[in-house]
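Weekly sync, protein design subgroup
Attendees: M.S., D.O., the rotation student, P.L. (late)

Item 1: inverse folding check
M.S. brought a backbone from last month's batch and wanted to see whether the design step gives back something sensible before we order anything. D.O. pointed out we never logged the input encoding, so this time it goes straight into the notes. Structure tokens as presented (313 positions):
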């Protein structure tokens, strides 16, 4: 009888030890599962961060963040599709940022560009390549229309300037520096293989002469005139010495100016630079979008231009 009781105690003890081991095993297994889940979640987060930094997707809500548009690359390309959309991290994106030939480029999907309120695109949203507006950080201009658009805005600004100052007439003429070679005769004492006249050598010499030639009368407008001038809002010409001089003389009450012609540098310091043009040319060539004329050649032509500004009060 005593042996049976002892045996029962042994069995109960064994069962208790077994339960403890089983419970410990279950706890250990759950901890391992939790640890594996955390590791997997961490691994997923690392991969997502890696894909995000590598693919650089842009979403519609990004454009609603204050000052986000002002931080965008200066070059925008409109694309129909990109393989990035197949990546989970890019699902729902409206575009992405990539580096082409060392220059950051914002790519926007064609189906989404019409849904964006900002940035603004000039003259419309049908172009393929846009470049940032020199005066409006939240706007981009069709690259093919860039120089034409900027010229029109400059002319419009100078016309508004004349109207604000109460002018009766304003005329804007665009001129370009042209290199002309003029042949001149030069005489020197001595002899040689050149044509000899009375012991003197006569030779022709080409002299380079810079001339300004009119290429376009951009504006010729007449106003009623006003003797109450007001100071206008300027953008392109806000730092131009000639324009500032005109403002001072016209707004001077003692002896206001009546008529003058100014010669103004056409290319503004805020516009596209040579180095930037070189980078964009490289990008366009890489994308096989380059035409016959390069942006560098366009900039060089702009630099040769002068703006003649005639104003009469």
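Designed sequence read out in the meeting:
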């Amino acid at each position: 009888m005593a042996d049976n009781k002892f045996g029962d105690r042994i069995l109960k003890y064994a069962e208790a030890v077994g339960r403890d081991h089983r419970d410990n095993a279950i706890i250990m297994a759950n901890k391992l599962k939790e640890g594996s889940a955390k590791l997997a979640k961490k691994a997923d987060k690392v991969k997502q961060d890696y894909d995000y930094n590598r693919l650089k997707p842009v979403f519609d809500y990004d454009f609603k963040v204050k000052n986000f548009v002002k931080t965008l690359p200066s070059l925008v390309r409109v694309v129909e599709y990109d393989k990035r959309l197949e990546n989970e991290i890019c699902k729902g994106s409206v575009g992405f940022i990539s580096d082409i030939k060392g220059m950051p480029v914002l790519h926007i999907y064609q189906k989404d560009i019409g849904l964006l309120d900002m940035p603004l695109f000039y003259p419309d949203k049908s172009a393929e390549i846009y470049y940032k507006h020199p005066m409006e950080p939240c706007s981009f201009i069709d690259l093919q229309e860039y120089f034409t658009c900027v010229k029109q805005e400059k002319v419009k600004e100078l016309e508004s300037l004349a109207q604000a100052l109460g002018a009766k007439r304003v005329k804007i003429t665009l001129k370009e520096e042209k290199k002309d070679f003029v042949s001149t005769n030069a005489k020197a004492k001595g002899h040689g293989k050149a044509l000899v006249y009375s012991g003197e050598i006569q030779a022709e010499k080409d002299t380079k002469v810079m001339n300004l030639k009119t290429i376009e009368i951009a504006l010729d407008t007449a106003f009623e005139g006003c003797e109450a001038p007001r100071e206008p809002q300027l953008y392109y010409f806000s730092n131009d010495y000639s324009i500032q001089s005109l403002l001072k003389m016209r707004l001077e009450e003692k002896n206001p100016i009546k008529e003058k012609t100014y010669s103004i540098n056409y290319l503004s310091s805020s516009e596209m630079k040579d180095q930037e043009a070189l980078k964009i040319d490289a990008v366009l060539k890489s994308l096989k979008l380059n035409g016959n004329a390069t942006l560098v050649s366009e900039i060089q032509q702009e630099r040769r231009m002068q703006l003649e500004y005639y104003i009469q009060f």
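Discussion: The chain has a mean pLDDT of 81. Helices lie at 2-55, 110-113, 146-164, 241-251, 274-286, 295-303.
Action: P.L. to compare against the previous round before Friday.
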